[in-house]
Design a protein that fits this description.
Blueprint lengths: L14 H17 L29 H12 L6 E3 L2 E3 L14 H8 L3 H17 L7 H14 L1
Antiparallel strand pairs: 1-2
Helix pairs in contact: 4-5
């Protein structure tokens, strides 16, 4: 089920209006000369073929968070993909942990075909939210789909 933050059942008003509010808030912040927050996505919970978590552990999240701060400061590098930028293995400080480049690739790998199928499922959510759905959402979805196809 596609449900942002599992909130739809608990929202006191239309989720499309909720999204529109936050998109407008970002525009107002930028119009006032402010900086909108950067958004990063992580998945600490990828598992290997045996069902074991690949990421070394909670305390190692700071390794990626340090790279995020570098990105915010305009210094962090990485590889572009359909959803943004992923750090290279060499961009992360691995001192004190035995985490191979192959393990890292297993948690950062993008399966474009699987994501293309996933994006089709998002159409169901957008259909559910069609009343007042901000145009930015289907436009962003279309851009991601185009990047996945390209």
């Amino acid at each position: 089920r596609r449900d942002p933050f599992a909130m739809i059942a608990f929202a006191g008003y239309n989720m499309s209006d909720y999204f529109a509010h936050w998109l407008a808030m970002g525009q107002r912040i930028e119009a006032a000369g402010g900086k909108v927050p950067k958004i990063f996505t992580v998945n600490w919970f990828r598992k290997d073929a045996d069902g074991n978590f690949v990421w070394p552990g909670f305390s190692d999240n700071m390794r990626v968070m340090a790279w995020m701060l570098e990105r915010v400061e305009g210094r962090g590098q990485g590889n572009e993909h359909a959803f943004g930028t992923t750090p290279n293995y060499s961009d992360i400080n691995w001192n004190g942990v035995d985490f191979t480049e192959a393990q890292y690739q297993s948690v950062t790998h993008m399966d474009n075909d699987a994501w293309a199928a996933e994006m089709k499922l998002h159409a169901e959510l957008f259909d559910q939210l069609k009343h007042n759905l901000p145009a930015e959402l289907p436009a962003t979805k279309a851009k991601i789909e185009a990047r996945l196809a390209g």
